[in-house]
Amino acid sequence: MYFLLSNLSFIDVCQATFATPKMVADFLSEHKTITFQGCMSQISFLHVFGGSEMVLLVAMAYDRYIAICKPLYYMTIMSRRVCSVLVGVSWAIGILHSASHLAFTVDLPFCGPNKVDNFFCDFPF
């Protein structure tokens, strides 16, 4: 359980800090823009860490299920190898999740006005 918790903590730290440098730079500057590559990298990191965290939480739920329902077999079922495989699978699914989202997002057209037209702003109520 502590091995899975340490990996969850690492994912949470990574997820909390991948966009922080850009955010701090935008707070301190007047010109707040992001490049297309920077935006795509932030989206991919968000999906990698988010997808990995979700799968790791499922693995932790499985760990607690084994600990509660089969306490005498816990050490046999949840060996160090099984925990390592669960962590590896969580990272692999996170990367696959990110790659699938990024494959569809990169080809979308992002050129055009950078102001959002709100339909209701033109009509006084």
From TrEMBL:
GO molecular function, one term: olfactory receptor activity
InterPro entries: GPCR_Rhodpsn (IPR000276), GPCR_Rhodpsn_7TM (IPR017452), Olfact_rcpt (IPR000725), Olfactory_Receptors (IPR050427)
Residues covered by the G-protein coupled receptors family 1 profile domain: 1-125
Pfam families attached to this UniProt entry: 7tm_1 (PF00001)
Transmembrane segments: 40-62, 82-104
Main location: membrane
Signal peptide segment: 1-16
Localization per record: Membrane
Membrane topology: Multi-pass membrane protein
Keyword terms, alphabetized: G-protein coupled receptor, Membrane, Receptor, Signal, Transducer, Transmembrane, Transmembrane helix
A Gene Ontology term for the protein's cellular component: plasma membrane
PANTHER family (alphabetical): OLFACTORY RECEPTOR
Described function: Putative odorant or sperm cell receptor.
Protein name (Swiss-Prot/TrEMBL): Olfactory receptor 4K15
Organism in which the protein naturally occurs: Camelus dromedarius (Dromedary)
Native organism taxonomy: Eukaryota, Metazoa, Chordata, Craniata, Vertebrata
